[in-house]
Amino acid sequence: MSGTGGAERRPLGGLLTREPVVVAAGVDVLADALADQAVRVETVDWRPPPPGTDAALAAVLGSPGHAEANARAVGRMVTARPHLVDVRPAREALGLEPGAFLHAGPPLEWERASGPMRGALIGAMLLEGLAETPLGAERELARGAATFEPCHHHGAVGPMAGVVSPSMWMLVVEDAEHGGTSYCSLNEGLGKVLRYGAYGPEVIERLVWMGEVLGPALRAAVRRHGPLDLLSVIAQALQMGDELHNRNRAATSLLLRELAPDLAAAPEVDRGRAAEALRFAAGNDHFFLNAGMAAAKAAADAARGVPGSSMVVAMARNGTDFGIQVSGTGDRWFTGPAGVPDGLYLGGYGPDDANPDIGDSAITETAGMGGFALAAAPAIVRFVGGEVPDAVAATRRMYEITLAEHPALQIPLLSFRGTPVGVDVTRVVRTGILPVIDTGIAGREPGTGQVGAGLVEPPANVFEDALRALAEMA
After folding, report:
1. Is the pTM of this model over 0.85?
2. Which of 199, 286, 333, 418 could tie 106 with a disulfide, CB 3.0–4.6 Å?
3. 82-293: which CATH topology?
């Protein structure tokens, strides 16, 4: 399929003429033939809707109030004002009892849990004193000695395995516009860490220190500072080269600039411990990721429960399944198999060492950041693979499947155009364009840790299944 248009040019003499341009979609035979004739050809990524979806598309798109419902949902998402207001242990913030854990992604049973998810749950058992050895922890988990639910079911999100146990400290974020509250754990850093499924002594020691030193220090700083506007930090960081999923260097610096004076002045924090906390956070370029995830969760939750809306409010992975939730279908999950990211690997690791995609951090893409803002972060391509034009093309592609441009999150390289926000199930199915997510890669075997970083797409079926569910409700 192709169409012709014209691009203005001004030859000698000042007369305006039009250079022929062909826009081609589908097979490349015609486009290649025209290119051989020196005709300018613009190729677009398009494919017909999957077989069997026509009736569902017609039902949803033709339902009364569908457009208004989507406008309302995305309007609530982009007007959310997430503020960091507190830092508290999960037992207090979420009411977690001993032996109760949260995890990333849609619901999961131990029998289907991937290597990194199992490793993180084993580590949580050791941290909470529910087992003395990894083997003992595994036995206890296999016999059902602990319960675990998705973070999303408790207003929370967790990176990678996303395992939260009662003694872990949580960032508490409130939406000053719509009134919701969201939570995320503290970031451990990179390498062998619990969220990537590692559970060695150094992992547990770090988590104990975070509970005894880092959490209380941050609580004192945040309470002394008062509500901290996370959207403002995110907007500034986008101007400074972050995309807020795999690159958080600027956002981390901005956060610490806000909190450091209050941490230093907090009388309840020993100066030595304050210095430890600052040194740890400053040495971790991903420290802001968890705050950004909680901010994105608050924005996405503000858009939940709009009848008739086909906008996605959660994308999450548990290392086995990839799941989405949609504004108009309540808390129902639509799931498919999680894919293995395509990217760059650390050391001697390769694709055979990689676990399928895992983590709640795709909430950043859900709210218009991460892979949707790759054009704001040219440096990210050195971390996930590809070239700068690939990053720009990825962001431009996301405008095709979203409902709006975020008024506060702007991309300098695209003339300060707002990031694409509000993934629409109908647009994904109609175009065949899938959301792009930039992510870390966890090792397949429990205890391995991080093995790389790259890009991944959801399985197409989750959007088709959501579309059919919406059609049944139309």
Report:
1. yes
2. 333
3. Enterococcus faecalis V583 fold (3.90.1710)
